[in-house]
Q: What sequence folds into this?
């Protein structure tokens, strides 16, 4: 666990902007500058403020601090081989770091987003408020009122439990994170009254993301680090966005990356040819139907279909717009007697 919280040192929230962090540092450094302040511990506070700012003003150090609780690379000895796996860790919520320390990982969150046929075709940008577990505002995620911890009596501060198993002539040693301290090796002395020691509270977070053009119905993508915050200043989980799309529009429908439309034409227009307007995702398109076109023929307009969502904007993977031309045969009851006689003479 941390001995100090850099956000608390500067008096800003974990979501503070770069400008807010800079303004807080300027105000505090001026207040506690040893040449100006008359407070007895001004020098120590001034050093602490500079230490906090040196981490939070550096994007790389800040990301490391937010993720692992330290900006010291020497302390981060081992990365999780499953980091970034879309649906969380296979082996529980805790992640190994170094020999004994464990950083707890927040749960993944799945959300469903509905988009229109047009948004599926062209892509869209969304801003959504997500309900999630956020870092406790009272204890800044430590889970403690005073930010004090002590070694876990169950694992003696190691963060691990060890079990020896004998299999025939072999002895296998198995180890797993201590369930009492969740592998941290530390327990909280006095639980925070707001979060009851978890370091988390219910809240919401606004998330913005782009849905690529050509996104398939019920397809999904993962936004790293936007899930529930990790307990006790741990690593946040991921946000899994499942996209649900409308299946058709104006008679248009999707077939893989191809856009399709069934065009019904009257018999004379198929015999003599005609210029017709057909719907498109936005607006309309004009096409010419050649004379003598057979029913069931498909006309292909290359590169006017859906993008491949894995290669948006790349015309090499773009689908086509396929128009199937079918003859619209009138019902006998809709024909006049003289029309029927004319047709019989025509096809004798």
A:
């Amino acid at each position: 666990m941390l001995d100090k919280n850099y956000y608390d040192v500067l008096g800003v929230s974990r979501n503070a902007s770069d400008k807010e962090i800079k303004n807080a540092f300027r105000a505090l450094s001026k207040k506690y500058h040893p040449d100006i302040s008359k407070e007895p511990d001004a020098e120590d506070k001034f050093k602490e403020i500079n230490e906090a700012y040196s981490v939070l003003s550096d994007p790389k150090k800040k990301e490391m601090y937010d993720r692992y609780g330290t900006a010291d690379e020497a302390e981060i000895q081992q990365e999780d081989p499953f980091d970034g796996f879309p649906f969380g860790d296979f082996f529980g919520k805790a992640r190994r770091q170094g020999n004994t320390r464990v950083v707890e990982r927040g749960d993944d969150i799945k959300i469903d987003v509905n988009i229109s046929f047009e948004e599926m075709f062209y892509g869209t940008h969304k801003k959504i408020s997500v309900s999630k577990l956020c870092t406790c505002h009272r204890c800044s995620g430590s889970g403690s009122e005073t930010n004090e911890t002590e070694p876990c009596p169950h694992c003696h501060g190691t963060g691990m439990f060890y079990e020896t198993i004998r299999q025939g002539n072999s002895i296998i040693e198995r180890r797993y994170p201590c369930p009492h301290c969740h592998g941290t090796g530390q327990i909280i002395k006095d639980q925070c009254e707001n979060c009851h020691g978890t370091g988390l509270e219910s809240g919401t977070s606004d998330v913005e993301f782009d849905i690529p053009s050509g996104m398939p119905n019920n397809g999904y993508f993962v936004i790293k680090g936007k899930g529930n915050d990790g307990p006790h200043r741990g690593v946040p989980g991921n946000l899994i966005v499942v996209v649900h799309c409308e299946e058709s529009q104006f008679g248009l429908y999707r077939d893989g990356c191809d856009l399709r439309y069934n065009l019904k034409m009257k018999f004379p227009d198929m015999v003599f040819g005609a210029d017709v307007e057909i719907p498109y995702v936005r607006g309309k398109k004009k096409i010419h139907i050649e004379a003598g076109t057979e029913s069931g023929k498909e006309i292909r307009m290359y590169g006017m279909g859906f993008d491949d969502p894995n290669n948006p904007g790349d015309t090499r993977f773009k689908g086509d717009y396929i128009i199937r031309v079918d003859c619209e045969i009138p019902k006998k009851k809709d024909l006049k007697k003289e029309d029927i006689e004319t047709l019989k003479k025509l096809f004798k």
